[in-house]
Amino acid sequence: MFNTRNFLLATSLSVAVGAAHAADPIKIGVPVGLSGANSVVAPSVVQSAELAVEQINAKGGVLGRKLTLEIADDASGAQGAQRAYDSLIFQKKVDAIISMETSAARNAGLPIVNRGKVPMIYTSLYEGRSCSPWMYANSWVPDQQVAPVVDHFMSKENAKTFFLIGSDYAFGRGMLEFTRKYIESKGGTVAGEEYLPMDGSDWTAIISKMRSVSPDALITSTAGGAPNVTLTKQLRAAGIKIPYGNLSVDEGTAKSMGADAEGIYIAASYLTSLDNPENKKFLAAAKAKFGNKLETPNDLSVPEYEAIYAYAAAVEKAGSTDSKKVVDALATVAVEGPRGTIVMNKQHHASLTMYLGRVKADGSVEIISTFPDVDPGEQCPRLAN
Amino acid sequence: MGVLTLDILTTGSILFAVAAGLMIILGVMKLINFAHGAFLTTGGYVAYLTGLAGISPWLSIVLAGLLGVAAGLVIERFIVRPLYHRPLDAILATWGLGIVIGQLITIAFGRGVQFAPSPLSGTTGVLGVDYSAYRLSVAIIAVLLACALSALLSYTRFGLNARAVIMNETLARGLGIDSGKVRATTFGMGAGLACAAGALITPMLSVDPNMGLPWLVNSFMLVMISGVSFPSLLVASLVLGGAQVLVSTYVSPILGGMTIVVLAALVLRVNPKGFSRA
Fold first, then answer.
1. Is the pLDDT of residue A305 over 50?
2. Domain B2-270 in this protein, CATH class
């Protein structure tokens, strides 16, 4: 008798708690570079996140709870990221972090994530091998991006010697170091590898050096925005016509460079011209929500959209927002998004379908070849899956 | 070898064109115009806007120059003139002005990178190599500019007055030279030169709200070691710009970026008068 009453009491209590719980929204923290180097792409990332949250909430949310976003500016750098992560995790008490940031910002935020023990999905392409039990990455790493460009140059353009140019920072050097090793492993040679500081704009000496060794092909990996554009313009002004692969240009920047961008090869996991129903649905929904304020979706903003769906699916599967359970579930859930079906089951990274594109005269990107399910390789061997 | 020579000549001339506006203001007004970088950026945006409007890119250089002169005259009247007797505050005021201009540009155009069309595209054959046509024409413009500015100082009434103010302002005023007018004209010219230089270099680069800052640092160093003389500024630009190209080519472009600053400091240490003959 006593036991039964206790049981009833406990049950009614837990229902009451459950009901109160259901009213609380699930908070997702989005640290992003609204100012600084990433400010060019940040608005498109925020729009992606808003679209995903709106769509999920329209279908009733997750476990009966709505999703809300907490956007924080990380100023594209380490100091800003520390402040942003600190306030998101310890003051606003977000349930998860889903961020598109510079490598500097990610490296600064990761220790705070480890301390606060919240699930994190990093959605920017990056130089690879950043590992934490709490972090997943759903965009590409060098192992996935470099091969399509180099393979194409070697087989179709008959290139044997390569010249590499980059900006002097973690991403620039990381990408080109991988590229050099990859070229050498395929029997090609690297005739030169040159860097300019991130704020440098005069590539004259490097271009002259490249002309003196006359390589068969050129691969660049600069910081986004200004360095990328100045390098391309000066290459064109110097009459450089060899095959030119750019590891850090996005569709939007290529478009704004106009005629100078024509002929540049880019490798990406997302291009607006992808011909699949999910992408068409995504583009139509984005257009409907933002109208003419829509920032062109790109390889940095679409993974953010998919990551929010991945988190929602993981919470659904785990049955709660408990960090440990969600982190375990993240490795297993599949998201059907504009980039195809993505599962982050490769040491917290994901196999991706990569596209090799070539910029046309009108700035649009023509897809030359498709590389299905490119494996990210050994990224975090100490994380089981 | 031909390419290296051309790299040195063009780099030096670009540096000269960019630093000329800073020098003329320093020479006549004894004022280091820290808004110089912001003026360069403004010129860059003029080139961007004229590009959007479909106006000839050559014309954008002239337009930027005119806008710079007008803005310079207004700024001199309302910001610099009240501070003539407080030289240090005047320098701080130009620094602040640079920040304000930078922020206004950010509000108007955003932080993103913009581009301006180039008046000349492609290459032309010189010294047996194909070289960027626009870079070469910038070099020619810079040399013409150096001649014109030197002639202005040496052979015109304004130049005579300006030289008198440079040598001894009190005495010049005593002789009936309106030094206030000379100062105003000079500031307008300096701002105009800076804006025109911004429009001149933007087609080779890109423009964003912080574009002028690295140029300001290099210009400042060059002006410091060349005294108040356009020929010596040209020599300093060629020597230090040449050193930058050589270091970038044979050692590392990362060290090349610091060459001008380091060499200028060394020159001042060894010979405080730098390249000036005075």
1. yes
2. mainly alpha
State how far residue A36 is from chain B, nearest Cα, in angstroms.
8
* Within this chain, domains A2-140+274-350 and A142-268 share the same CATH topology: yes
Domain-by-domain residue ranges, chain A?
2-140+274-350, 142-268
Q: Which pTM does this prediction carry?
A: 0.77
Per-residue pLDDT band for A201 (boundaries 50, 70, 90) equals: confident
- Architecture (CATH level 2) of domain A2-140+274-350: 3-Layer(aba) Sandwich (3.40)
Report in angstroms the alpha-carbon separations of B19 from A329, B68, B82, B191, B220: 60, 15, 25, 11, 7
Q: Return the residue in A169, A198, A201, A202 with the most chain B beta carbons within 10 A, the one to mutate for interface testing.
A: A202
Question: Chains A, B: CB contacts under 8 A, how many?
Answer: 96
Average pLDDT estimate for B164-171: 87
Beta carbons within 10 angstroms of residue B9's beta carbon: 20
| A174-203 mean pLDDT | 90
From chain B, the residues in CB contact with A208 under 8 A are 3-4, 7, 249
The H-assigned helical ranges of A60-141 are 78-86, 103-116
CA pair distance A256, B264, nearest whole angstrom: 38
- The winner for highest mean pLDDT among A79-93, B121-135, B156-170, B243-257 is A79-93
Q: Which of A17-26, A235-244, B174-183 has the lowest mean pLDDT?
A: A17-26
Find chain B residues with C-beta within 8 A of A295's C-beta.
none
Which of A40, A194, A233, A256 is the best substitution to test chain B (most B C-beta atoms within 10 A)?
A: A233
Q: For A142-268, which CATH class?
A: alpha beta
Name the band, by pLDDT with cuts 50, 70 and 90, for residue A253: confident
Q: Do B118 and A233 touch (CB under 8 A)?
A: yes
Q: Check pLDDT > 50 for residue A349.
A: yes
Share of chain A above pLDDT 70, in %: 93
Nearest to A206 among B121, B205, B253 (CB): B253
Interface test with A, best of B115, B240, B252 (most A CBs within 10 A): B115
Residues of B in contact with A201 (CB under 8 A): 205-206, 211, 214
Which residues in chain B are contacts of A39 at CB distance < 8 A? Answer: 110-112
- The CA distance from A105 to B227, in Å, is 44
- DSSP assignment of A197-263 equals -TT----HHHHHHHHHH--SEEEEE--TTHHHHHHHHHHHHTT--S-EEETT--HHHHHHTGGGGTT
| Partners of residue A236 in chain B, C-beta under 8 Å | 121
Q: What's the pLDDT score for residue B12? A: 93
- The pLDDT mean for chain B works out to 88
From B185, B273, B244, B237, select the one nearest B18 (Cα to Cα). B237
Question: Interface pTM (ipTM) of the complex?
Answer: 0.73
